[in-house]
Description:
Blueprint: E1 2-9, H1 12-26, E2 29-39, E3 45-54, H2 57-70, H3 81-101, H4 105-108, H5 111-120, H6 125-129, H7 136-152
Helix pairs in contact: 3-5
Amino acid sequence: MKIKIFNIRLTEEHLKSDQKAINDFLETVKMKKSSTSLVEGKTNFWSIIIHYEEKHDDDLSVKRNSIEKKQPKLTEADLTKNELIIVECLKQWRTDKAQEEMVPPYMILSNLNIYSVAKDKPTTFSELLNVNGFGEKKVDKYGDDIISLLNAL
Length: 153
C-alpha cells in the first residue's frame, strides 16, 4: 500500500483547484483509506493522507476510454458567431503574448483552450480554473488578461 498527502487550502482562489487535484488522483488509484487533519496557520488548510494501491493497466485503460467518450473535443464548428469573435480576439492576444514571451503561440494557449474559453466565457479566476486545460499556473499567469479581454467584448 502507498500513501499520498494532499493539502486543501481554505481560500476561495485555491479550494476548487486543490479539490480537483485530489479527485483527479482518486480517478487513477484504488483508495483504501484516508486520514484528515485541519492545520491552522497563516492560511488554514486540510491535510489529507490517502492510502491507496495502484490500479492495473486494464483498469486505467477502461477509465481513460470512458473519460474520452464523456469529453468530446471541442472544435470551431461547435461555436456560435459570437464565440468565433471571441476566438479571433483570443488568438490575436495569444500571438502578441507569444511574441512578448518569445515562445510559440501554442505554449501560451492551445486552440482547444481558446475554444473552451470562448464557449464557457468565464468571468472569475475560479470559473477559469474549471475551463478545459486551465490549471493554477495558467490562470495565475494569464487569467487577468483573459478575463479582461472577455469583459471588453
